[in-house]
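ok so dumb question maybe but i'm new to this and my supervisor (M.) told me to 'just get the structure for Glutamine-dependent NAD(+) synthetase' and walked off. so i did the thing. is this what she meant?? sequence i used:
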Amino acid sequence: MENYGFIRAAASCPKLKVADVKYNVNEMKKAIYRAYENETDILVFPELSISGYTCGDLFGQDALLDESLNGLKDILEYSKDMNMIIFIGAPLSINHFLFNCAVGIFKGNILGVVPKTYIPNYGEYYEKRWFSSIDDTNITDIYILGNYVPFGSVVFQNRRMPQMCIGAEVCEDLWAPIPPSSYAALNGASIIVNLSASNELINKASYRRELVKQQSGRLLCSYIYSSSGVHESTTDMVFSGHLLIGENGSILKENERFERDSEIIIQDIDVQRLFAERRKNLTFKDSNKLSKPYRKVDFDMEIKEKRNLLRYVDAHPFVPSNAADRDERCKEIFNIQTAGLAKRIEHTNLKKLVIGVSGGLDSTLALLVAVKTFKLLNYPLKDIITITMPGFGTTDRTYNNTIELCRCIGTDLREINIKDACLLHFRDIGHDAEILDVTYENVQARERTQILMDIANKEGGLVVGTGDLSEVALGWSTYNGDHMSMYAVNCSVPKTLVRYLVGYVAEREMEDKAGKILIDILNTPVSPELLPGNEGKITQKTEDIIGPYELHDFFLYHFIKYGASPQKILYIAGIAFKDKYSKEEIEKWLKLFYRRFFTQQFKRSCIPDGPKVGTISLSPRGDWRMPSDASFDAWLGEF
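this is what came out, is it supposed to look like this??
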């Protein structure tokens, strides 16, 4: 599927004249053409858009109903060569009933008709004076404009792309305790359209917006909402032309209300992402036993491939772009981390913590979590044992930052140089200390872990792990070295978010001197510091070896959360990072991501406990179950 699951959706509110069908149809044609020019796949008009919603007792006039049918016929003829499914609101007289309907049309044909279920008859609404509910009849097919078409509980499914399955409801249906869209979604609809005429009251717009967000989130669907505009009759009500396109609990696009001209909003929605979420969500699947039967109507629509994506692609999906939201996220994560660590301390009845501090981001974050936890428990900070263990690659900058930060905080700072112990171990195992290979590096990592574990035993303490989610995903740790601890507080925090967490503490919770040290740590290149440097400077930079962490976090997010294919990830990464990395660079690091993710699963199979803070976790006891020997050929084979 070379369009990668993206569907282009539009919601339109055309100008209208109440009960003037010809005028309304002409305005709708303009919107249809505009949507067509923009390669739209689904277009949604408001409730009773052909006639106008506020016709009142004129709905009892054959002249209006006949003219509405003629207008519908006109639109069918106009759109017969357009590769677009269009939903039009129309009053339809069937037998002795009058229904308020969503009419789905495609290439000059009516695919099906979905009448309104809940007919409001309270406050300013009195629709039952004219309209019947879908529940008032057993009609399943109607004869309209020379053809029999499906009527009632219907979903529309694209044969070429079955994930594009559309359910429809009308206005009040969304406000009901159990909206009909709930049943449509359980019958496969990944896209819900709502043809609405919702008048404006104080705060009603925000409530309406939340309804769309919540329903799209509960149903794991996209929700396209189109409401009547300001040219409806204002005898007793004012309408704003509210247009919304939501997806899985978020609003992707929204218009400015109360505009005088015809409006349309267009946005790309991602049905592949929605289906990935549904596959994982057992509650959604278990709800099928509560469903009602729906009739599936097929249509054959070709979705254009590789068009310019209208959808915003966040380069840093783990990090909120809004500063206030980001601060709130950081606060929440710290609360989760400290609550988890506090519980482990209380359960083990240990009064001390042991942390290896290096002057790097991860160990700094772990230290800050430990400090916050001890303050929460009213434990003295001197019972946090911070150990700096200089080795062959330790630089003056990281060493000095470590010493100064621990002194500012008031921890029990200890220094244990590991060089002699590592040289002795090299001799014991017959390794030439001049060969700077993986053995040279891992001996240092394991020596440091041994020191931490042994001091924890000696002092009656608990070793706090420092590795983050990005390192866990890539296996960027030494097995039974820094890979191991007694509680890993950072294990589900991605590297791109670690920076903001440390920055948040620097700005909000630290005195000036400690805050300045944290800022310098933030500006220090990420490095394991295991190889000798040049005049004490950092020469071994992690991102030069395995690639930019911002790319790997992007890959991880879309790979784990949505099961996105390598080609889709490559495509959207190219959009998100178009001004920073070439396609060749992104592809290079994406291939490395897959190789490392698959080959390093054996490390994840035995990682320590640690708190889950976000929707993505690689704990073998919770979110991620994977054999250590799975092949990556199917993923790399896409390149």
